[in-house]
Amino acid sequence: MIIYAIALNTFREAVRDKILYTLLFFALLMIAGSGVAADLTIGEYDKILRDLGLAAINLFGVAIAIFVGIGLVYKEIERKTIYTIASKPVARWQFLVGKYLGLVVTLGAEVCVMGVGFLLLLIVAQGQLSLGLVAAIWLTWIELLVITAIAILFSCFSTPTLSALFTVAITLIGRMTSGFKDIAASADAPGLETLANIAYRVVPDLQTYNIRSEAAYGKVIEWEFVAYATGEGLLWVAVLLSLGSIIFQYRDFK
Amino acid sequence: MTELAIEIRGLRKVYRSGFLRRAYVALNDLDLDVRSGEVLGYIGPNGAGKTTTIKMLMGLNLPTAGTVKLLGRPLSDRTVRRRIGFLPERPYFYDYLTAQEFLHFYGTLHGMAKADRQRRIDELLPLVHMERARHVQLRKFSKGMLQRVGVAQALINDPDLVVLDEPSSGLDPMGRMLIRDIILGLKERGTTVMLASHILSDVEEICDRVAIVAGGELRQVASVSDLVGHKVQSVEVRVTGLDDDTVAKLAPQGHRVTPQGRTVIEVETIDLANMLARDVLAAGGRLISVVPRRESLEQLFVDEIEAIERVDREKP
Fold it and tell me: Do A9 and B93 touch (CB under 8 A)?
């Protein structure tokens, strides 16, 4: 009940915040614009349209996740709104999870609006849909859940600027972790091998959730893989939120 | 109900700041009891450690050392907070909520059922004179309105213990009077109140006892009547119906006459005032009033703090 109340309140704040609508508007504009961009290319019109649309959903989703996620906890401390909440019979982890879930629902709604807009565009332009595209959008949302959890973790102990820097850095590294695996396999120096292995293990591999190219090319998507990626994403969320809760538990609100 | 609403033993808070993590002792070895049903004024100059104490009581900051029991339960027992209300200093709230949504939200955090929340909101909004702002977003509220709705959120759970940090800060005289009446109402119902305030006239009027804290240490705890009641500085006796000779005989040290023609004689003690009253009546005069002039809590507080600062300055 407490977590639900905090999540609902967070969602309500987002819904009543005009900035998110502006971002959403530009996201829809970019998705619509991908039709025009696809027109300008020679050949592979269908693939370009699907590729650009999925990329737009991902780009704006990540932007919103980082932009809102980094300030989610910090803002509460800075504006002292947390004083009246933490003094109630509310555990700090409940507050953190509530804030997280509120943002997750908000992101879900945003991805839904962008996804439906994109799929409608495809129906109009191509007269067909593939379930692979829905799976790609679903995994984009799972990726956003992980990125939001990273942003919230940093938001528990640092300023929004630093949190943004850390989150963007981890997101970029997370999209290259398979490279670390290759480095570890081919490295001659044992130190470099260990370092690359640690980076590969510690940072979430965000490429796991990227099946956009496969979906755009119309390849067959294995649903077992989608389920596995979803499970792995949720596991990362649990680990990151647990870590955030431990840090948050011992934090003073000055 | 337990006898002590708040039991603080050896409470200490050290903040660390800067790159070198320099220590700053904000509160040192505080022992303080707040009895059930009393209103305790927690007063001290800025930076004395009042808000630090309250933050630790409310679970916002972790104590460096010491123990706290609230309503007989340790600080770690979160469930006891269902019986506690809290208004922080200069509160900030979610300004996109309406007053009704705002109070529902805090009621939910206390685990209250919807019907109970609604009933309590219907009681509290008129109490803080905010009935007409029920469906208005907090962003459109004045500072005074925010403070009043903040008081309502502190009372949403019908608490046994209420902690108020500067509740009258930024309020106009009407708002201050309202807060004073609300606290007096809580006192009548047997609710324990811990009130941190700089408005000492309010503290003197409302509180049963005061605790003075300065430099992170508790300096004095006493009942308001003990502090201000034992220090009658003079007694003003107003009389009428006496001729000048009688007045000169009764008040050899002098007197003054008010524009309304009343004779005002000032004596040093209550006993002298009693004797004077008898003499006035015996001489055929009429007694209009006998008003003891006590040292105010404000004056006492200023004297106390100045004495503390003097001692601190003289320390090697």
Answer: no
Domains of chain B: 4-228 (3.40.50.300), 232-294 (3.30.70)
Q: Is residue A62 part of a domain?
A: yes
Neighbouring residues of B292: CB distance < 8 A, sequence distance ≥ 6: B232, B234, B235, B236, B270, B273
Who among B87, B105, B110 is closest to A89 (CB)? B110
The predicted-structure confidence for B6-47, as pLDDT tens digits, reads as follows 999 999 999 887 777 888 899 999 999 999 999 999 999 888
Q: Between chains, do A88 and B109 touch, taking CB under 8 Å as contact?
A: yes
Query: How is residue A64 written in tokens?
Result: 């919103």
Residue A197, domain member (yes or no): no
**Cβ–Cβ contact A91 with B under 8 A:** yes
Candidate from A102-106, A166-170, A213-217 with smallest mean pLDDT: A213-217
In a domain, A43, yes or no: yes
* pLDDT band of A229, cuts 50, 70, 90: very high
Q: Supply the ipTM of this predicted assembly.
A: 0.81
Instruction: Give how far A127 is from chain B: nearest CA, Å.
Output: 42
CA distances from B185 to A183, B18, B294 (A): 72, 45, 26
Six-digit token string for A213: 């190219």
Q: Which of B17, B24, B86, B109 to mutate to test the interface with A (most CBs of A within 10 A)?
A: B109
pTM assigned to the model = 0.82
Closest CB to A250: pick one of B62, B84, B111.
B62
Judge whether B71 is closer than 8 Å to chain A, CB to CB. Answer: no
* Residue written as token pair 């109340």: A5
Nearest to A81 among B59, B79, B93 (CB): B93
CB contact under 8 A, B96 and A5: no
pLDDT digits 0-9 by tens, B106-119: 999 999 999 999 99
Residue A187 lies in a domain: no
Query: What digits encode the pLDDT tens for the residues A142-182?
Result: 999 999 999 999 988 888 889 889 999 988 888 887 777 77
Contacting residues of A for B152, CB less than 8 Å apart: none
Of B73, B36, B38, the C-alpha closest to B57 is B73
How many Å from the N-terminal Cα to the C-terminal Cα in chain B? Answer: 47
User: B161-165 and B84-87: which strand pairing?
Assistant: parallel
Q: What is the mean pLDDT of residues B273-296?
A: 88
